[in-house]
């Protein structure tokens, strides 16, 4: 995971990188001529100009490549926004999808558009992982008629503008700083997107009129060090093992507050290790594939007691169905313009596969599909935030909106490997790629 990220560009405070301030240590020693004094003043001014216009490299996980106001606004931009959010006559939904250039966001946005909903994306295209992959997903969305606004969810002015232009009925909030281990390198990126950004988004939703219903991605990581399996929504979630998990857990608390005070209808979905075509390069199934094909050694972790590490791998299409099910059963928010008018729906669902698979089995399937033997080394799992296993109880989602995962790991990985080989051999997306 960490290898995706350039440590040198990691900011301590995302989005807040500022150039070093020059130290002005000029002292005028008389007697100097008036001319020398003017020269010194001029040089000082030039030095000041140089430093104040110096543009620092963009931080690795927040990527406002353009200056605020440059990348959005204007009549052309508004036309793109309006066109993207046009819906079919049969649909009653206009959905803002945050993190739409991401793995899950791009799949969900396309599924919504395909069935006729109005869809607008927003993404900051940060550099946590290969930004070309995000742009390739964006291209697919554009081809389907979905406009992705380049912006950060921390930009309250932009969000207000979007809600002024479009009466969104729903927000599918999938933008976040994902990944467990990266939190040890860049903790502030988690605070920036998962706490501050989420709050700015909820502020915009609460003030909107009409208020949208919100469905957002929490994570199975909130179950932390729990050992009771399968994980049920009723289980305790107060022992996070990583900062990522802690920000998702805090997000659930923040969401509850906005539901309670402002009448926002909010549904949290706890995803369990989502995988599939167009996936995330920082996830094991993805970088194992890359390294096995390159003949590079891969590290497979086992738990400290020598047991296997297992994950409830969930195929992307199953997760998309769960997201749409949650969206379709979400009740309306009850407030308007920042005022609560009655109590509103608040829900939490697991979206997993209910069949954990050891990571060693994942590797064996990849070896079979890639027809290459992996060079493995087995090491005890370091304390970097990962947990030993995850296993979802999905009966609540099943009852509420018929959630029923159907893709087993081998079938799903076959689809992933097909996509991977196509995408990386052509170096770009093929028109009409079969992976969607
Ligand atoms: N993929 C999984 O296995 C998994 C598991 C549990 C939870 N989740 C959650 O699901 C959601 C989607 O995950 P994903 O796997 O698609 O991750 P992803 O990193 O591919 O997608 C997230 C997208 O959000 C964007 N983003 C991040 N911060 C932003 C900000 N401040 N403003 C605007 N855009 C921002 C990123 O550029 C990225 O494109 C996330 O909330 C993640 O935490 C994912």
UniProtKB/TrEMBL annotation:
<dbReference type="GO" id="GO:0050378">
    <property type="term" value="F:UDP-glucuronate 4-epimerase activity"/>
</dbReference>
<dbReference type="GO" id="GO:0032580">
    <property type="term" value="C:Golgi cisterna membrane"/>
</dbReference>
<keyword id="KW-1133">Transmembrane helix</keyword>
<comment type="similarity">
    <text>Belongs to the NAD(P)-dependent epimerase/dehydratase family.</text>
</comment>
<feature type="compositionally biased region" description="Polar residues">
    <location>
        <begin position="1"/>
        <end position="13"/>
    </location>
</feature>
<dbReference type="GO" id="GO:0016854">
    <property type="term" value="F:racemase and epimerase activity"/>
</dbReference>
<feature type="domain" description="NAD-dependent epimerase/dehydratase">
    <location>
        <begin position="95"/>
        <end position="332"/>
    </location>
</feature>
<keyword id="KW-0413">Isomerase</keyword>
<keyword id="KW-0812">Transmembrane</keyword>
<dbReference type="Pfam" id="PF01370">
    <property type="entry name" value="Epimerase"/>
</dbReference>
<dbReference type="InterPro" id="IPR001509">
    <property type="entry name" value="Epimerase_deHydtase"/>
</dbReference>
<protein>
    <recommendedName>
        <fullName>UDP-glucuronate 4-epimerase</fullName>
        <ecNumber>5.1.3.6</ecNumber>
    </recommendedName>
</protein>
<comment type="subunit">
    <text>Homodimer.</text>
</comment>
<dbReference type="InterPro" id="IPR036291">
    <property type="entry name" value="NAD(P)-bd_dom_sf"/>
</dbReference>
<feature type="region of interest" description="Disordered">
    <location>
        <begin position="1"/>
        <end position="25"/>
    </location>
</feature>
<feature type="transmembrane region" description="Helical">
    <location>
        <begin position="35"/>
        <end position="54"/>
    </location>
</feature>
<keyword id="KW-0472">Membrane</keyword>
<keyword id="KW-0520">NAD</keyword>
């Amino acid at each position: 995971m960490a290898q995706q990220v350039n440590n040198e560009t990691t900011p301590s405070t995302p989005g807040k990188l500022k150039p070093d301030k020059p130290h002005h240590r000029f002292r005028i020693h008389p007697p100097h001529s008036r001319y020398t004094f003017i020269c010194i003043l001029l040089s000082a001014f030039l030095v000041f100009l140089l430093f104040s216009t110096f543009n620092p490299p963009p931080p690795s996980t927040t990527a406002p490549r353009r200056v605020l106001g440059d990348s959005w606004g204007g009549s052309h931009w508004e036309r793109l926004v309006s066109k993207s959010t046009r819906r079919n006559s049969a649909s009653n939904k206009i959905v803002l999808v945050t993190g739409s250039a991401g793995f899950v966001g791009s799949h969900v946005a396309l599924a919504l558009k395909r069935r006729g909903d109005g869809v607008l994306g927003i993404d900051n295209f940060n550099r946590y992982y290969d930004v070309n992959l995000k742009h390739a997903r964006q291209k697919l969305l554009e081809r389907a008629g979905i406009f992705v606004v380049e912006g950060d969810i921390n930009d309250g002015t932009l969000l207000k503008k979007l809600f002024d232009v479009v009466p969104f009925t729903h927000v599918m909030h999938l933008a976040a700083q994902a990944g467990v281990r990266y939190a040890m390198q860049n903790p502030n990126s988690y605070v920036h997107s998962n706490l501050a950004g989420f709050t700015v988004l909820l502020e915009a939703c609460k003030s909107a009129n009409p208020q949208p219903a919100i469905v957002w991605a929490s994570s199975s990581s909130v179950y932390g060090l729990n050992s009771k399996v399968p994980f049920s929504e009723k289980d305790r979630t107060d022992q996070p093992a990583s900062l990522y998990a802690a920000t998702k857990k805090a997000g659930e608390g923040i969401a509850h507050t906005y539901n309670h005070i402002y009448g926002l209808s909010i549904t949290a979905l706890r995803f369990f290790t989502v995988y599939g075509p167009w996936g995330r390069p920082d996830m094991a199934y993805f970088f194992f594939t890359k390294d096995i094909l390159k003949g590079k050694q891969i590290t497979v972790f086992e738990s400290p007691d020598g047991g296997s590490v297992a994950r409830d791998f969930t195929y992307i299409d199953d997760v998309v169905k769960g997201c749409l099910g949650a969206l379709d059963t979400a009740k309306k928010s009850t407030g308007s313009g920042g005022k609560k008018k009655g109590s509103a729906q608040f829900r939490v669902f697991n979206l997993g596969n209910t069949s954990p698979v050891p990571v060693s089995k994942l590797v064996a399937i990849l070896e079979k599909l890639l027809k290459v033997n992996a060079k493995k080394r087995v090491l005890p799992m370091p304390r970097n935030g990962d947990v030993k296993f995850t296993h979802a109880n999905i009966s609540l989602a099943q009852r509420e909106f018929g959630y029923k995962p159907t893709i087993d790991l081998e079938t799903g990985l076959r689809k992933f490997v097909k996509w991977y080989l196509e995408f990386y051999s052509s170096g770009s997306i093929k028109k009409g790629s079969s992976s969607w």
